[in-house]
Every structure is written in structure tokens, then in C-alpha cells.
Design brief:
Layout: H1 4-15, E1 19-25, H2 34-43, E2 49-52, H3 63-74, H4 79-90, E3 98-102, H5 104-110, H6 112-122, E4 126-129, H7 138-146, E5 150-155, H8 161-170, E6 175-178, H9 191-204, E7 209-212, H10 218-224, E8 230-233, H11 235-241, H12 247-269
Helix pairs in contact: 2-4, 2-12, 4-6, 5-6, 6-7, 10-12
């Protein structure tokens, strides 16, 4: 059976559209807000949802997502909560791919096979683990694949050529290109360099390439889209959701934030 991720990117390619992939931290701005926000994002034009798994030491994340993760952990959001959210989302949306983004430790505690079984049952399509090197990913990938879950890979401007070739060859679902060396939410974006590097990676990769880090609004999304198959937006959306008063306001903020990015991507592609 064709995976949701492959099916989605096939549809996008056939229609000449770019993927818009929002990231949110599960459990922030509230435990009851996660699923309504997911649905609101899809309604505003999201093609894939990246759900951040709250973690106590999010080393690749900047201040916005670090604070968001701390708030979510303070409310009791953990891996089991995230899987419950996905299962609830799947009750009314069986087509939008959901990718969990996080760190290896919570999965190692549960066990890769047990996690993959539970994640697949909930309706998870892919997992991106920012601290899992490709050289050590084999057993985890095998456990995920046995359950029908794809292991998403990360590449960065500092990735060595040999590792880039390996990532291009082994990547599943899509390949996430980090637009600059640093943490999420940064602003040191060299558009020309990203366009060149992402274009080179796209030519090598066997899966779609998405660009993330540094995309904060419609203009930056449209500027980077030409070199990739889509864009990921995280920190700016997390900031927009922070402090929302209840699930309804959070969902409204999510839709209001994402809709202009969708319009800009479609206009740039058209």
C-alpha cells in the first residue's frame, strides 16, 4: 500500500504545487488545543503535519521551541500523549500525513519496536529524530519500516559530501534540508546559498526535499520554495500560538498564520 506521505507528494507534483509543512509542539498552547490546531492547519492548506514530541533537552531547537516544549512538559505532555493526539486526529482525517519530530531518548526508553507498533496503530506516518546519525540509524529504521513508518532524515549546509550522498540514497518519506547551521528559529538566512544547496540535494535525492529553519512568513516561504519540493515552518508558528486562550483561539491563530503562506506558495508556483 502506498504511504500517505508518498501519496501526498505525488498529488502535489501532479498539480505543480509545493508542500507546506507546519510544525507545532504537542501540548502547547494547551493539552486540549493540539488536535483542533492540527485540523485548522489542514483547513488552511497544510499538506503534512509535523508534531513535536516535547523533550527536556531539545538541543537542536531555539528559544521559541525550547520554551514551548517546557510548557508542554509542565502540562504533562509526553510521548503517550502525542500518540493519543494522532489517534484522535485520525478519527476525522485519514489522509493528511503526520510526522513526529523529536529526539531518540523517549523512543529508546519505550523500545523502537514497541514505539513503532504503537505509533503505527495511532496513525503516524513518519518520524524525524534530530539526534540519530545516519550511520547508526539502521536498527531503528528497520523497526520503523516493519510497522510501516518511514524514518525522515535531516541534511544541513555542514553535512559532509559523503554523508549527503548517503542521505540522498537512504532517505525515506522526504528529506529535510536545514537552511543554515544553527538552531530552529534563527534568522541568518542566505537565500541564494539555500537555493543552490537545496537544488543540488534535490538533484541527488530519491525523495522530495523540504527546506526548513528560518522560514517565518509568506515572503521567506515563497523565496525558498523554488529550490525545493516544499517548506517547513515551525518557530514562527509556535510563537503565534503561544498564550492562546483555549483551543478555539489557538485554532484560529493557526489558520490565520498559515493561510498567507499557502497563498504565497501557490502564487509562486503559478
Amino acid at each position: 500500500m502506498t504511504s500517505r506521505i508518498k501519496q501526498k507528494f505525488g498529488q502535489l507534483a501532479a498539480s505543480g504545487r509545493k508542500a507546506l509543512v507546519p510544525f507545532i509542539t504537542s501540548g502547547d498552547p494547551g493539552l486540549e488545543a493540539t488536535v483542533p490546531v492540527m485540523h485548522a492547519l489542514v483547513g488552511a492548506g497544510a499538506d503534512v503535519i509535523e508534531l513535536g514530541v516535547p523533550f527536556s533537552d531539545p538541543m537542536a531547537d531555539g528559544p521559541s521551541i525550547q520554551r514551548s516544549s517546557e510548557r508542554a512538559i509542565g502540562r504533562g505532555a509526553g510521548l503517550r500523549y502525542v500518540l493519543r493526539c494522532v489517534a484522535e486526529f485520525r478519527r476525522t482525517d485519514d489522509t493528511t500525513p503526520v510526522v513526529l519530530m523529536g529526539y531518540l531518548n523517549p523512543i529508546e526508553i519505550l523500545g523502537a519496536q514497541a514505539f513503532a507498533r504503537d505509533a503505527a496503530a495511532a496513525g503516524v506516518d513518519g518520524v524525524l529524530l534530530v539526534d540519530l546519525p545516519p550511520e547508526e540509524a539502521g536498527p531503528t529504521r528497520d523497526a520503523f519500516n516493519a510497522a510501516g513508518i518511514e524514518l525522515i532524515s535531516l541534511a544541513a549546509p555542514t553535512t559532509a559530501p559523503a554523508r549527503l550522498q548517503r542521505l540522498a540514497r537512504e532517505s525515506q518519506g522526504y528529506l529535510y534540508y536545514v537552511s543554515f547551521a544553527g538552531v530552529t528559529g534563527g534568522s541568518q538566512l542566505d537565500v541564494a546559498d539555500v537555493l543552490r544547496r537545496a537544488g543540488e540535494l534535490r538533484a541527488m535525492a530519491s525523495v522530495p526535499v523540504l527546506v526548513g529553519f528560518g522560514i517565518r512568513d509568506a515572503a521567506s516561504a515563497a523565496a525558498l520554495a523554488p529550490a525545493a519540493d516544499g517548506v517547513v515552518v515551525g518557530s514562527a508558528l509556535v510563537d503565534a500560538l503561544a498564550g492562546a486562550d483555549g483551543p478555539a483561539q489557538a485554532a484560529d491563530r493557526a489558520a490565520a498564520f498559515l493561510a498567507p503562506l499557502r497563498a504565497a506558495l501557490d502564487a509562486a508556483a503559478g
